[in-house]
Amino acid sequence: MIEKILVFLSVILVIILFPFSLACIFISVRQFERIVILRNGKIFANRCYGPGLIFYLPCIDNIKYIDLRIMCHTLPPEECLTRDSLTLTVQAVVYYRVVEPLWSIINVADFNMSTKYLAATALRNTIGRHRLSELLVNRAEICAEVLEAMKQLTTKWGVFVIRIEMNNLSIPLQLKQAMATEAVSLRLSNAKIMVAQAEIESTKSLEKATSMLMDNPLGMQLRYLQSLQSIAGDKTHTIVFPYSKDMLRSLLGNK
User: pTM value?
Assistant: First the structure.
């Protein structure tokens, strides 16, 4: 009853002050905005208004503006502890927008600050469940996990989190040096393994070639002559090599 009386008195006041009251009973709401009217502390008509020219009673109505555009917040650097007990400094960016203006007014005091703090907490908790190697390789998957953790709460606030990105991942200098040493050692060990495998393949090929030449004496002699030619090269050399009776017989066709 009292609320109705206050509304009636406010309307009477607007009529008495007409046309001067026209300057304060209309507000312009932009395309990317919505407003929530709180009449005597209650949401009027249980809906939001805009865009366009909106009528309200200045004496008993309180206006709350809601921006529907995508918002971007840079999270301050956070020191996080990984699963393998390593301390990292992580900085991230979160993108979100309001999809339910009424919920963003009723269910949370400050949706901007709450979303920012929630992103920092979710990021820190998610990093604590992963190892450093996973963070360096699967950064996109880690961000997707943080995003899913945030959506469970921000949906109740009328906020839709679009994306979160880790734009800076700082590793202590000593840890960087240890990782560099480990990477060099791993590359050297892989190189030695590759060289050993190549030697094994070369030995197998040499054994196969030796077996083939042992079954073909003429081929053995031809290979022998090729070796002498490669030793001589382009310069003039005098090479003395013996021939056995069996070798001569093989060259003369066993005559």
Answer: 0.66
